[in-house]
Amino acid sequence: MPKLWNETIEAHRRTVHDAILDATVELVRERGLLAVTMSQIAEKTGIGRATLYKYFPDVETILAAWHGRHVAAHLEQLARAGERGGDAGQRLEAVLETYALIHHQMARHGFGPDLVALLHRPDDVGHAQHRLSAMLRDALADAARAGAVRDDVAPDELAAFCLHALRAGAVLPSQAAVRRLVAVTLAGLRAR
Amino acid sequence: MPKLWNETIEAHRRTVHDAILDATVELVRERGLLAVTMSQIAEKTGIGRATLYKYFPDVETILAAWHGRHVAAHLEQLARAGERGGDAGQRLEAVLETYALIHHQMARHGFGPDLVALLHRPDDVGHAQHRLSAMLRDALADAARAGAVRDDVAPDELAAFCLHALRAGAVLPSQAAVRRLVAVTLAGLRAR
């Protein structure tokens, strides 16, 4: 087959794939995690059940794929935040604020603890958390060398502190409250 | 029946009840959450299956009861920490350290994210988290009035920050690291 044809097929598959993920997440939001079936997903996506099963074996696998797409997008967003201009302290602040706002927005879009707990299966978490921790540890080590962060506590311990503290973004009522959370977290990182 | 007899019955029921909880948690640790059956629990507790069903309808209900017992014990432990001597700042510090150490010890005893996610069903969390947040918010408000904590961020926002940050105790390798976590968290609370 000509290359262009293959690309068209691939683009079509990708479109259907993404439409399935979006339909599933919307159904889960509407009906709750345990009430969603493959038939409902096929209907909402506008494809046949047989076609759906060519893409995914079950609801959990669809949600895991959706989660993987999100995590990849968030890691990308955090990496970009860390590459903006400014000194090491400003770059760290940009990463922390982005991370807290991601949790705030996820919670506002209805991804409550039950969905997150299901999706955060050890394998997924292991990989994504590892990349996230490494990214943050490097940003903290840079900031410590530049004197913008305390150096009496190791960067990996400070990274654990930040990652947990900033998840409070999920329970705060506004972006202004999230920015205060980031300021309090940064104050902990700076003090000696 | 005489009162003493009723008390003996009640004490016996309590003993069996607690033995079922302990046997279940031990089995879950050994075999994983999804592999444990009511038959195994009856056998490990040393009672018949029929007796077990007089106490609990299923494994999940046993784990929820076990979790409830733990949460009550932890809230009690935190309340006692907050009633020790010292000024408002010292009492707050005692509560924060106790909370971080509870998470550290839970993680060391093998209560990983999957078990915690299952047990933290919205109802349970709602109630226990509410009491915990209220306790911490009061301790923070007292400390802010005493000048030991910043007053430019509301106590409930500071409470959300603390509760999330100190859960990092679960991933830290030692009690010394947990104490550094508490120190960093307190530095965030104190700075202006």
TrEMBL record, chains A, B:
Identify the keywords attached in UniProt to this record, alphabetized. DNA-binding, Transcription, Transcription regulation
Checking InterPro entries in the record gives: Homeodomain-like_sf (IPR009057), HTH-type_TetR-like_transc_reg (IPR050109), HTH_TetR (IPR001647), Tet_transcr_reg_TetR-rel_C_sf (IPR036271), TetR_SbtR-like_C (IPR049445)
Protein's UniProt keywords contain tRNA processing? no
Q: What are the recorded GO MF terms, alphabetically?
A: DNA-binding transcription factor activity; transcription cis-regulatory region binding
**PANTHER family noted in UniProt:** HTH-TYPE TRANSCRIPTIONAL REGULATOR BETI, HTH-TYPE TRANSCRIPTIONAL REGULATOR RUTR
Q: What is this protein called?
A: TetR family transcriptional regulator
